[in-house]
Amino acid sequence: MLWLIILGVVGLVFAPAMWLRPSPRQQRVTGLRDLARERGVAVRLERSPLHEGGDTLPAYRWRYPPQRPGPDFLLVRDAVASQALKPFLPGWRWRVEPLRPLPETAHHRLEVLLESLPEDTVVVESSAASLTLWWDESCPNEAFADLDERMKALSDDLGGRPDYPEAHRRAQLPNVPPSVGG
Fold first, then answer.
1. 15 lies in a domain?
2. 32 within a domain of the structure (yes/no)
3. Which residues, given as ranges, of the chain have pLDDT below 50?
């Protein structure tokens, strides 16, 4: 009987510590985020660009260099998109289409990327600042290197193709004070 009481007390002491221990998924996701950050990818939990729900999702961002901004577009997976949106590839629809056509190499890389993305990827977004992947982080850590290479290659192809090149050029001009006195 004494042993049962001792086991019960020991169990009560260690139970809270077991509840605080991260689950295997939490451990994997933490490792994935650390790996992404080591490779230069910005990772943040943010409100997703989806219309309905707007749940908080992990956003993995591959930044364009400031002197080479990217185009603006937003592709949404069919499963979470309105059927009114223009189709791009089977399974993907444009919510925001780029103003200028993508170069052939970038268009091809984008198609290959979309076909290889994990099923839990819901949005691929590009802005002047970055190329962003919105997903639920189902990719195993070993497969992230391949995803990273594909995103970097696409980012390289899209960089320097802003939708508003004139505004970007004006923003890059140094501030020159007006001449004073003649």
1. no
2. yes
3. 170, 173, 176, 178-182
Structural domain boundaries, residue 116: 24-160
pLDDT score recorded for residue 148: 94
Instruction: Give a yes or no: residue 4 inside a domain.
Output: no
Whether residue 122 is contained in a domain is answered as: yes
Q: How high is the pLDDT of residue 80?
A: 87
139 contact partners, CB below 8 Å, separation of at least 6: 32, 118, 147
DSSP for the chain, written as a single string: -HHHHHHHHHHHHHHHHHHHSPPHHHHHHHHHHHHHHHTT-EEEEEE-S-SSS--EEEEEEEEPPTTS----EEEEEGGGS-TTSEEEETTEEEEE--SSPPPHHHHHHHHHHHHHS-TT--EEEE-SSEEEEE----S-HHHHHHHHHHHHHHHHHHTT--S-HHHHHHHHS---PPP---
Query: How many domains is the chain built from?
Result: 1
pTM of the complete model beyond 0.70: yes
